[in-house]
Amino acid sequence: MHPENDLQAFIREGYLHFLPHVSLDCVVFGFHDNQLKVLLVKWKKLGGWSLPGGRIKRTEHMDDAAQRTLEERTGIREIFLQQFHTFGRTDRTQNAPLGDVADLFGEPIGPDNWLADRTVSVGYYALVEFSKVNPTPDFFSEACRWWDLHELPPLLFDHNQMVTQALHALRAQLHYQPIGYTLLPETFTMPELQALYETILDRPLDRRNFQKRMLGLGYLQRLDERRTIGAHKSPYLYRFDRFQYEKALQEGLGFGQYVPMTSFAG
Amino acid sequence: MHPENDLQAFIREGYLHFLPHVSLDCVVFGFHDNQLKVLLVKWKKLGGWSLPGGRIKRTEHMDDAAQRTLEERTGIREIFLQQFHTFGRTDRTQNAPLGDVADLFGEPIGPDNWLADRTVSVGYYALVEFSKVNPTPDFFSEACRWWDLHELPPLLFDHNQMVTQALHALRAQLHYQPIGYTLLPETFTMPELQALYETILDRPLDRRNFQKRMLGLGYLQRLDERRTIGAHKSPYLYRFDRFQYEKALQEGLGFGQYVPMTSFAG
């Protein structure tokens, strides 16, 4: 099949294969140069950027649809995905009504087209390895690239609000789930792990308290090697114990191992 | 309009007024006799209990639809509602396929009826004053009543899983939002507040740590009166400072005032 034909079929009769009235949007966080990055796509004709999103096939679990969408945009399989909020305001696409976009994609998207119907959108966030992502535009977009979290443009639809809520959820996740496996290289120093936490929380943390808390969680392995930086500084290298990490991810850190972030504060 | 006509119109052409493929389900928690209760409805013909649920009008914000649904089931307006998860498995209604229920409500619900279509369901939980609720069945249900959380029957659809996840979310909420205003009478003692927390967390908490933490949150007012219990026990009465409580509810307890529940443990 020719991609353009696929697009036209999707616009004309995609509702036969996908659920109407429901969509997915993904806030993909990457970590690079001590900054949080967010993956955005630029729409061919609407003249703006949005989060990567998708539709749910009628025969597909919703979570699988989110995985598929992200694999298509990033090239990565089995991404750590977390559903964080579902957006259902009637005016959520008001700043870019698809129904006003006629004939832009070789097939009219008029107000009666299924793609112009109101959707309730389920928001997921993902934590991915920045370096492994191969940003790939979809049918409707001409570009797909990383943006600094602090320098996002005004986004189409309600997507700025989605990013804000996803960040809020990610910060909350720090308290009850391990974080870092997909955001850091395989081995890392304690200052590097702390920089990740500080970047997500957007504030400094106390070094000694942070180290104590992190080691108490039981999923960090200290390696024998150290990183050679200078004559006097040779910080230990760590890696995540995959088994313990996965266990904590599935079960949560639990109330017994709860990590109050206030204890980190300097 | 006669209710039966409304029901038949809803079954026949409700999709003109409501969004297909999306539904809402509500886990309504009440607190009574030191037990958490959950509001359930019994379906007229499917032969089982489920959570109260509803549909979103095409012209209505999703959150408003949840408020409307709950007002219809409980008689209470402006309920504290929290969205906690959206359920999108293809098999989520497999244990009670509505499409197999023909002609039961005076109007056939066959496999082609819009009500038999797959839905993605957005889960909300609510905390309500047990004594103020007037449980009211809907069109499809013959009963609506409270059940003990620990004695729930097997529920239709994926609703047992919904209750489990709602409880998980409610427990998490204890850490970052105030709780209790709609679950306790206007004035209460510290042991009564502690009992609420213990019931939600399902484990005992240390009395002194609990009191210290609670008073530190800044939204409890101690009254001059005490409750007279016996010759020697006259615990202070408290009430919530509405302004501070609402502020904390909107802003979250924040990382600065974070309440680690581990500190409560006995």
Question: How would you characterize the overall build of this protein?
Answer:
- The structure is a homodimer of 266-residue chains.
- Helix content of chain A is 28%, strand content 23%.
- Chain A is an alpha+beta fold.
- The first copy, chain A, folds into 2 domains: 157 residues, Nucleoside Triphosphate Pyrophosphohydrolase; 90 residues, Winged helix-like DNA-binding domain superfamily/Winged helix DNA-binding domain (Arc Repressor Mutant, subunit A).
- In chain A, strands 1, 2, 3, 4, 5, 6 and 7 form a 7-stranded mixed β-sheet that branches. Chain A has a 3-stranded antiparallel β-sheet with strand order 8-10-9.
- The radius of gyration of chain A is 21 Å and the shape is elongated.
- Chains A, B: This is NUDIX domain-containing protein.
Query: Would you state the CATH class of the largest domain in chain A?
Result: Alpha Beta
Beta-strand portion of chain A reads 15-25%
Q: How many alpha or pi helices of chain A? A: 6
* Radius of gyration of chain A over all CA atoms, rounded: 21 Å
Main interface by residue count: A-B, 37 and 37 residues
Query: What class, by secondary structure content of chain A?
Result: alpha+beta
Major sheet attributes of chain A: 7 strands, mixed
Oligomerization category of the chains in this entry: homodimer
What's the count of strands of chain A? 10
CATH architecture of the largest domain in chain A: Alpha-Beta Complex
H and E order of chain A: HEEEEHEEEHEHHEEH
Total domains of chain A, how many? 2
Give the overall shape of chain A, derived from the CA principal axes: elongated
Helix percentage range of chain A: 25-40%
Distance between the termini of chain A: 59 Å
State mean pLDDT of chain A (0 to 100 scale). Answer: 86
Unreliable stretches of chain A (pLDDT < 50, length at least 5) are 254-266
Under CATH, the topology of the largest domain in chain A can be stated as Nucleoside Triphosphate Pyrophosphohydrolase
CATH superfamily of the largest domain in chain A: Nucleoside Triphosphate Pyrophosphohydrolase
